[in-house]
Design goal:
Length: about 170
């Protein structure tokens, strides 16, 4: 009996260890998300701490610096999502490995071009990588939105810059 996950095998070359590839992509996605969250939390926490000055001997004795502004969102975000870009690049290059896999031995790429399903070779070389790439882009977009919500939620009232989306360096 085939499971619903085995339908994914149609997007990868025949004989290719597609389940390991999906598991590896999921691991890369989880690692990218974890690193992005850690980096963003560190940068956001440092920026919020810079808005306060110590008024007493204890860490909780702080006052908001008058006129202090939070850096813009792109400055806080920095390169937190760069790990997703690296994972996306690796997934894009994986389609080349899929094509080269078809060219080994009996050259099944030549046979697949003669099949009635004209796009079978393209689907098997690009389909799995495209699906995993879309999942990576979706995860990065969701984190981008969640990070922006956190940026707005943890910035003290009156400390948001006039242009939250201002370009860095600018």
């Amino acid at each position: 009996m085939r499971t619903k996950w085995e339908a994914l095998s149609r997007l990868f070359p025949l004989g290719w260890p597609w389940s390991r590839e999906v598991a590896g992509a999921a691991g890369a996605l989880a690692g990218s998300a974890l690193l992005a969250v850690c980096l963003f939390i560190y940068r956001l926490g440092s920026a919020v701490d810079d808005l306060y000055r110590q008024t007493g001997r204890h860490a909780w004795e702080q006052d908001l610096i008058p006129g202090a502004l939070m850096p813009s969102y792109p400055q806080i975000l920095g390169g937190a999502l760069i790990f997703f870009a690296a994972a996306a690049l690796a997934l894009a290059l994986l389609s080349i490995a899929h094509f080269l896999y078809h060219r080994q031995g009996a050259r099944s790429d030549y046979l697949m071009r003669r099949l009635p399903q004209r796009w079978e070779l393209a689907r098997r070389c690009l389909g799995g990588s495209a699906l995993l790439l879309a999942c990576t882009a979706l995860a990065a977009a969701i984190l981008f939105g969640l990070f922006f919500i956190c940026y707005l939620a943890f910035t003290p009232a009156g400390c948001l810059p006039p242009d939250v989306w201002a370009a860095t360096g600018g």
